[in-house]
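Figure S4 source data
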Amino acid sequence: MPSASQYPTPRLDARPTEIFRSTLGDVAERLRAEAAEAQPTQTPPHPDAAFTGIAMATDDVRPGDLFVAVQGENAHGARFAEKARQGGASAVLTDAAGAALLPADLPALVVGDPRRAVGPASAHLYRDPASALQTVGITGTQGKTTTAFYVAAAMGMQRSGTIGSIGTTVGDDFFPPKLTTPEAPELQALFAVMREQGLGTVAVEASSHALMLGRVEGFTFDVGLFLNLGHDHRDYHPTQADYFAAKAILLTPERSGLGIVDVDSHWGRVMAEQATVPVRTVSAAGNEADWRAEQIELRPDGSAFVVLSPRGERVRFTTQLTGAFNVNNILAAVAGLAEIGQPLESLVEGIAALPSVEGRLQRFDFGQPFTAIVDSAHKPEAINAALRAIRTTSPEGRLIAVLGANGNRDTSKRRMMGRFAAMFADVLVVTDDNPYDDDPAEIRAMIIDGARSSASEIIEIGDRREAMAAAVRMARPEDTVVVLGKGHERYHALAGGDIAWYDPDVLREVIEGL
C-alpha cells in the first residue's frame, strides 16, 4: 500500500480522544458470554492487568496497549511481544502456541482463536461504539466503494462516515487506506471516533478476507448489502463457490440484522435463497424484487430513475454518476437505509448532490477537447461494466482505453481483463499496473492474448506515462480516453519498490504537454 505521506494528514486521531480502560479479566468475561470459539482456555493469571488500546502490529502499538499476537504466514506474532512491550504494550492476547513464546512476566490472556476474540475485545474496550451508529455493511466484487459513498451522501456526508478501499472518511476528515476493511481494533477505534464526532451513519466495505478473518466481529451491522459476485481473489479463494461462501458470511445473524440482495445476477439470486437473515431483494433490470428501479434514463453526465418500494412508494432519484451499475448501487443503498427506518424521500437530495467518487468513472477537464476519465476497474466484470457504461452513454467517437494488470496476484483474470476491455474499446493501450516482482512483459502478453480475437486496435507500451501520453495524442474531440486500474491509488509498485503515482495527476501532465 502507499505510504501515508502521499495523502493529506488527517486532522483527527484514528483513536478517540476519550481514554477507555479495560482489564484482561473484563475481556475474559466478555468472550465467555459472546463466542464459544474465542473462550479463554485458561483464566488469566493477571486478571487486573489493564490496557487502554489494542493493536495487532508492533508498529501500531501505543503505551498501554493490549498486543494481539496471532499466527502469521511466516511466524507467530508472539515472537514480537518483547518489541511490542518496548513500544508500550502492557499485556498480550494470544493462543496457546503464542503463550509458550511470551516472556514470563508479560500478562497475557490465552484464547482458542485470538483473531475471533479481538473484535469483541475491541468493542468491549470502546464501549460498543457501533451501537451508537447506524451501520451498513457492503460486500460484492465491485461497487462497494461507490455504494458506501451513496449511503453517506444520502444521510449527509457531514454526518456520516465511510470505511473502505480508498480510506476512511469521518465527516469531512479523511484517513489513508490500509486495508479495504481494517483489522478489528482499528475498525472499533474508528467507530469510537465517529461516535465522538457525533456522526449518525457509517458504511463499511466488508471484503471477503475481512469476513473470513473476523475483522467485523464484535458487533452486528444494522443492514448488510450484497451487490454482486465476479471473478476475483482466486489466489485466496480456490473456487467461485468458496468466494461466494466468504461473502455470504455478511448475511448471517451474527453479522447483519437484515440483508439487501441485488438479484440482477445469478449469484444474487443464490444469495437471496441461501441467506440466513431476513432478506429484501432489489432489481434495476426488471426482475421480480421487493425494491425496483424503473424509467431509467442513462446520460453521459448522470442518470435518473424511479424507485418503487414494497410499500407502493414511487420516488424519482437523480445522480451525477453515470452507468447502469450505479442505478443498482443506489437502489441497494436507499433500500437498505429505508428498510432500517429512513424515509425514502429524505434520501433524494443527498444522492443527487454527490458529484463523484474518487477514481470511479471520474471525469476530468484539463482543457482538452476530448473526454478524459479515470476508473479503478481492475477486475474483468468491473472493466466490462465501466466500459459498457461509457460506450452506452457516449456512442459518438472512439473509446481509447489504457489498461494493465497487477503482478503477484491471480493470473487467471488477466486474459479475461483483455477480452472484456477489447469488447468495447476501439483502441486498447496495454501497459503496466503494479507489476511488483512479476515480469511486466509477461503480464502484458496475457492481456493482449485475451484481447486478440477482437477488432480493437491493440498497442503495447510498458511505461504507464508513455501509454497515457500515446492515448491522449491520438484522441480526437469526439473521443473518450479512459485510464483503468488505479483510480484512487497513489503509488506504482515496481520490482525495485513503490514510486509515487496518481493517475489523475499524470493524465493532467500529459494533456498539458500536448
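Figure S5 source data
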Amino acid sequence: MRRFPLLTTTLLCSALALAQARAQVASHSERIPGMGNDSAQDASSASKFTAPPPGNPQAPGVNAANLPDISEIDPATIPAMVPQQSANPGHDDWAAYGHDDNQDRFSPLTQLTPENVGGLKRAFVYHTGSKPGPGQANKWAAETTPIKVGNALYMCSATNDIMRIDAATGEEKWRFKAGVQYHSIPYTAACKGVVFYTSSTVPEGQHCHDRIVESTLDMRLIAVDAQDGKACESFGTGGQVNLMQGMGESVPGFVSMTSPPPIVNGVVVINQEVLDGQRRWAPSGVIRGYDAESGKFAWAWDVNNPDDHHQPEPGKFYSRGTPNSWATMTGDNELGLVYVPTGNSAADYYSALRSDKENAVSSSIVAIDVKTGSPRWVFQTVHKDVWDYDLGSQPTKLDYKAADGTVIPALLVPTKRGQTFVLDRRTGKPVPDYPVEEKPAPSPGVVPNDPRSPTQPWSVAFPRLGFPPLKESDMWGMSPIDQLFCRIKYRRAAYVGEFTPPHVDRPWIEYPGYNGGSDWGSMAYDPASGIVIANWNNTPMYDQLVTRKQADKLGLMSIDDPNYNPSGGGAEGNGAMSDTPYGIVVTPFWDQYTHMMCNKPPYGMIEAIDIHTHKVLWQKPLGTARANGPWGLPTFLPLNIGTPNNGGPIVTAGGLVFVAAATDNLIRAIDVKTGKVVWSDVLPGGGQATPMTYMVDGKQYLAIMAGGHHFMMTPVSDELVVYALPGKTG
C-alpha cells in the first residue's frame, strides 16, 4: 500500500470542505470548458427560458402566510425609542448578536481564565429540533448565536422557530413555531439570531412590552412576546409582516433572510439575500425600514430609484437585480444610521449591464439615515466587483483614539479580500491612522464591453488577513505527479494577482477566493486593550465565464426555470447568470482527482492584532486534521494545519478567545496573550457559528450552536452545547 507523507494526508478533506465554504455556496462541478469554450464573439444573451415579467403573480409559497399588504407610516411619527437592553447590557448578559450595539463580540466576564478554562464541562445540551427530514436533501447550516437577557436565552432554529430557554438549565420555556416550509429554504437553512426589543408604547407588564423579533427564510418579519412567546397582535397582521410586498415575480427560495434585523431609533431595518448566480434581473436588493411598534412600512432605499422612499404603487416594483445585502447590519442610535454591507448586482461575474448607481454602491458599506432611508455616505471596498468579493461580515463600532489624542467614532470593516478598513462612522472616510490607497489594477479586462476599474482600494496600515500572491512554486501535491498537475493548471489559467479579470477563453484564478479573508463570522474587538481577533480563510478558486450556448450545454439554469436543477449550480459555484451573455463555472483551485488544494497550506488562520500599534501580536493556523483526510476519510490526527473556517470568535475580559469555525468540529479556548490553545472539546456537529458567553447566579457559561454546515461538509446536528466550570461558583 502506498504511504503518504503525514502533512499531506491531513489536508485533503479540508479541500473538500472548501468547496462549499460560504453561506450561499452551491455544489461544484469539474466541467470547466477550458480552451474549448465557445469564443466570446459568439456569446449570446438568449436563454432557453425567459423569465416572467415582474408583474406576474408571485408563485405559491412566496407570501408564505398569505399575509395582506402592510400600510405606510410617516417615519417622522415613529415614537422615540426607549433605552434598549443591547445599548448597555447587564454585566452578565449577551443582549445582541454581537453582544451589544457595538457588535464587538466582547464580554466583560472574568470568571473563565487561561488558568482554569481547562476545567470546562458540558452544563447542558439543548436540541432545537431542526434537522433534515426523511427524503429531504441536507440544506442545514445553523449559524445561530443566542442572546441572553436576565435568566433567559433566546434563539432561533435553522428554520426560524423561536425559543426561550432557561439559561442555567437548558429547559425550554416556550417555542414559537414559524412554520417555514422546506421549499422556502434557499441553499442554506440558517438563522443567525434574534433581536430583543422593548416597546416605546406598550407599558411595562403588558403583553409585548418586551419582544423578540426575527426575519425569516420565507421573507416574513415576526414579533412575539418575550415572556410567553405568543405573537404580538398589534404588530403587522397577527404579529407578522410580508416582506415580499413590492418585490414582484419570484419563486420560493430566490429571496430569503438569515440575519437578525437591527432596530435603530425605533426602525426595524431589513435586508435580504438574493440567491447568486441566477439571472441579471433577479428580485431587488432593496433595503427597507419598518416601524418597530406597529410593523408598518417606513421607507425604502431602492438603488435605481434613490429618491422614491415609498412602497411601489400597484403594478410597479422595486428595481430588479440591484446589489443585495445578506450580512448582518450594524445600527448606530446616536448618529441615526444603519451600516449596510452590500454585495454585487445580480450576475456577479459580469458587470456590463449594471447601472452607474449600482456600480457606486456595490461591495460597499452604505450608511443609511433611518429616518429618511437616504444614504449619508458610501465607502466602497471593491470597484466594479466581478469576483464576488461582497461584504459578508458585520461591521464593528469602536471609539478609536488617534495618534493625536482625539477620539474618533469608528467602524471596523472586514472583507473577503483580507483588507480591513477602519472608517470614521460619521463620514465614511478612513481614519487618518488607517489610510486607504487606490492602487493600479489590471484594466481594461478582456471581456468585450465590460472594462474593469483601473484602480482598487487598499488599506495600507492594517495588517492584511492573507498571504502573498500565488506563484507556480507554491503549487504542491501528495506526489510529484500531483504537484505537476497543479503547476499545469496554474500555467493554463490567467493570473495576474488579486484582481485578475474574468476570462472566457480560459480559466482564471481568483485569489483570495469568494471565501477568502473574513466572512459571516466577522471579528472580535476588546475595547480595553485594543486587540482585534480575526479568523480567516486562504482559499483560491478556479473560475471561467462560459458563453450562453455553453451554459445551456452544462445545464446551468436559474432557480425560476421549470427545469432548474440545484445540483447543476446556482449560488456561489456554477451559475446560469441568465439575461447576460455568459454563465459562470467556479471550482476550488484543486486537483479534482485527489480533491487536494493546489496551493500550499495553511487554509485557515487566526490572529491577534493591536489596533493602536498596527502590529500582529500572534498568528496561528486554525483547524486540525482530526476530522479531515484523503478523499473524505478522517485521519483523527491532531496536527494543527489550518482548515477552512467560518463562524466568528469572541473575546473576554478574562483573557480568552473562544472560537469554533474550523472543519475539525472543535471549539477552542485560546490565551489572548499568546495564541496558545488552552482548552478544546469535540462538538456533536460543525461549529460554523459564533459562540457567546454569559453568567447566571455567579457562574459563567459558554454556548455554541453545533449545528454543522452542509456547504462546509461538517456533521449536521440540532444541538446547542453549553459549558461551565463544575460546582457552584460565585
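The helical segments are 6-18, 356-361, 480-492, 548-553. The chain has a mean pLDDT of 91.
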